[in-house]
Amino acid sequence: MTLGPAPALLLTNARLPHGSPADVLLRHGRIEALGPAGGLETAGGPASGAERIDLTGHLLLPAPAEPHCHFDKVLLGGLGGDGRADLESAVAAWYAARSTATRHEVRDRALRASSELLASGATAIRTHVDVGVTTGLLMVEALTEARELLAGRLELQIVAFVDFPLRGRAGADNRSLLADALGAGADVVGGAPYRDDDPPACLDILMDMAAEAGRPMDLHTDETLDPASATLAALAERVLVTGFPHRVTASHCVSLGTQPRELVERTAARVAEAGISVVTCPGTNLYLQGRDRALAVPRGLTAIAALRAARVTVAGGGDNARDPFNPLGRFDPMETASLLVLAGHLSPRSAYGAVSDAARTAMGLPRTRIASGAPAELLAVRADTLADAMADGRADRMVFHRGRLVCRTRHERTFPAGIPGGHPARGTAP
Ligand SMILES: [Zn+2]
């Protein structure tokens, strides 16, 4: 269904993160005006003729975004892996399964995952999908179809996650398919150069192809606890030396979290200088990394504090969900944010910034704020505080994309026998 222009919308009695109840007027996909509750409703005022939605009891936030997921494998379940549950066994299970994937089946899983993420508040999603000789362009075609069906409801970016080999004669077909994928609807050049014997040479190929096509890059720079992995540092140097003119995002960067402090700080400074955004994916890396350790199991996260101290944009991504790489996953940036609080030691406010403002920056999208003129990408969540909103995954939510209400979720709970202290908003108190 094609959507017409969104009507003007007045959100009333919204609780802003740092303020008293406010009214917010949305028009033409932007926040047109803000005022104290009731302040925009004067006769003939800016909100005349606007539809109204009462947000009493809701916290109004800039909408989160999902900067890193894999919709080609999402919702496939564990695929009966070999029980090791580490990265290599997950890759093997996926590679065994993907050769029988069909376009419709991939598209339908992508649509389901998209709707779940949208219901959580993510109005922009970036998915990596495999491109290579095994599956050709099937995954890109499935996702471009999903993107057309979702137009107007959310923004979907497609990263061509190219297979290896990539170098020399052996990599010719994969290189050619990567170029084809960019012509077939993929937006961004992706890949996992650390999985090759010569990561710097792969970086050169990917950067040359991205530069030629005029596209951003989003690379799985590494996903290993091996402190010797230096792909992130090599990427930063190449961006600085070549003056690569498009946005560069480095995902996972697990190795950086295991390296000596001086090296980490040096790399973080160069990553900042190169303007590279880093996406950490706590759910999947907490699950996959450190499987060979019985005690003091490392968390598998990148050096979040050092990167932030160097003023690198650090975003949080959900990555895998209900597939061999992660049997769980709630399709909810609030879950990613809560993991960044618990395992990454960010404050709730910083963690929410990682899954909203920073996520959009990593995706090359304009920043969102609750201010006049900002894009009307908003999430209203029934909660008193940001920490409550993160803690309560079931909280009622309303999601606005380009100034239009695109999803509303209400949870109903009753205590037929009554319950002392039940939440008055949702429980039935005696
Ligand atoms: Zn990934």
Summarize this structure as a short list of keywords or feature phrases.
13 helices; 2 domains; binds zinc ion; eight-stranded parallel beta sheet; TIM Barrel; 16 strands; alpha/beta; 430 residues
Descriptive overview:
The chain is of the alpha/beta class and 430 residues long. The termini are far apart. It has 2 domains: 96 residues, Urease, subunit C, domain 1, CATH 2.30.40; 297 residues, Metal-dependent hydrolases (TIM Barrel). It has 13 helices and 16 strands. The protein is globular, with a radius of gyration of 22 Å. The strands form 3 sheets. The chain has an 8-stranded parallel beta sheet. A 4-stranded mixed beta sheet has the order 3-2-1-4, with no helix packed on it. The protein has a 4-stranded antiparallel beta sheet with strand order 5-14-15-16. It binds zinc ion (ZN). Zinc ion binds next to loops.
